[in-house]
Amino acid sequence: MPTNVTAEYLAAEEEYRNARTIPEKIRALEKMYATVPKHKGTEKLRLQIKRKLSELRKELEKQQAQKKGGGYSFSVRKEGAAQIVLVGFPNVGKSSLLTKLTNADVDIANYPFTTVEPIPGMMHHKDVQIQLVEVPGLVEGAALGKGMGTQLLSVIRNADAIAIVVDLSENPLRQMEILLKEFERAGIKVNKRKPKIEIKRMPSGGIIINGQENIKGELSEIMRMLREERIHSAEITVKEPVTLEDFSDVLDESLVWKRAIIIANKGDAPGSRENYERLVKAYGEKFRIIPVSVKIGANLERVKEALYELAGIIRVFTKSPGEEPAYPPIPMKKGSTVLDVAKKVHKEFAKNFRYARVWGRSVKFPGQRVGADHVLEDGDIVEIHIR
Ligand SMILES: Nc1nc2c(ncn2[C@@H]2O[C@H](COP(=O)(O)OP(=O)(O)O)[C@@H](O)[C@H]2O)c(=O)[nH]1
Ligand SMILES: [Mg+2]
C-alpha cells in the first residue's frame, strides 16, 4: 500500500471493508478511485480498484437478471439502419420528442415515471429509417439496481448510440453529472475512443506483442493482466501510445464505447438560456449540444439531422450497367466498403466480385473503377461487376 494516500482515501477504504452489499462495495470503491492520488506510484492500485469494480459490475448484472422475474429484461429488437436511445431524467420531454420525431404512440403526462418500459419509434430521414428508443426513468443509483436500472442500462449498452435529453428548465449540469456517473457505473464509455489495441487469440504459441514501444508501463503488468483473463496465446498489436489503464480497459469485456449527443429541451422555459450557456461551457467540448423546444416546435429539424449523423449511416445507391440508380438507397455503416455493399445486395455478388464503378464523393472522377476494399461515402452510386 502506498504511504502517501489521503485521509479521505483511507476513510473510503474503511467503508469498503465494512460494505456488505454489492452496491455498497461499488460506491466505496468509486470513492477510493476518486480520492487516490493520481501518479505513477499508485498506478497498480488504481488498476486493482478498476478491476474490482468491473468484477462487481458483472456480479450485479447477474444477480439482477436472476432476481427480476427469472431474467426478465427489456430488450428492444433492432429495426431500421440504426438504434439510438433517448436517455434522461423523468419529465424532461423524451416522450414528447419521440412523438414529434417518429410514428410511436406514447403517453405524455406532467408527472414523473409516466413511461415505465422502453418505447421504440421509427424516424424517417433522408430515405433512411432510424429507430429511436425512449429509455425511461434513469435516476441516481440506476446502475446499482435502483428501479429497473440495470435492465434499462442494458438497453443502452446494446444501442448503437445515445441521445441524452436534458431539461433546460432545471439545472442541466446536475442531470449530466448523474447520468454520466450511471453510464460509467454500467461500463458505458461515452464519446471516448476505444484504445487501438488488437487482440487476436491463438490456439498456441504464447504471447506476441507488436508495437511494444507504444506501451507506457511495465510489460510484466500486461502479462499479469493477460494471465488473469486466461489469455495464454495471442497476437497483440498496439497501434498507438497506450497506458496500462487503456490496456486493462480493452481487456475488460464489461465495457462498451458509445457515441452520444445532448438534446437540451424546454428552450422556451424561463431560465433556459442561462442553463443552456452553462451546459455549453461545461460539456460543449465533449458533446454536440442541440437546444430545442418540443413545445413550440423549435429546432426539431436540427435534432433530426443530428440524430441522423449520430447514427453513423451512409446511403449507398446501387445501379446496373446502363440503368438509373435504384431507389431507395441501401443504408450502410460509415466506413463500409464496396464489398460490404456487394454482400448486402446478394451473396453471389460478393462471391463473384470483379470490380465496381463508383460515382460520388469517394472517387476522383465519375464512374471510377475501384476494388473490393474501396471505402464509400454518403450518397455514392455503385455499379458492381461480377464474373
Ligand atoms: N415548457 C416545455 N415543456 C415541455 C417541453 N417538452 C415537453 N414538455 C412537458 O414536459 C412534461 C413531460 O414530458 P414527457 O415527454 O412526458 O417527458 P418524459 O418523462 O421525459 O418522457 C410534459 O408536461 C410535457 O408537456 C418543452 O419543450 N417545453
Ligand atoms: Mg416518457
Compact description:
This protein is of the alpha/beta class. 36% of the residues lie in helices and 23% in strands.
Describe this structure in words.
With 387 residues, the chain is of the alpha/beta class. Helix content is 36%, strand content 23%. It contains twelve helices and 17 strands. The strands form four sheets. Strands 1, 2, 3, 4, 5, 11 and 12 form a seven-stranded mixed sheet that branches. The chain has a five-stranded mixed sheet with strand order 14-13-17-15-16. Strand 11, helix 9 and strand 12 form a beta-alpha-beta unit. Helix 1 packs antiparallel against helix 2. The longest helix is centred in the N-terminal third of the chain and has 25 residues. It starts with 6 loop residues before the first helix and ends with a strand. The structure holds guanosine-5'-diphosphate (GDP) and magnesium ion (MG).
Please describe the structure with a list of short key phrases separated by commas or semicolons:
Rossmann fold; globular; five-stranded mixed β-sheet; 387 residues; alpha/beta; binds guanosine-5'-diphosphate; single chain; binds magnesium ion
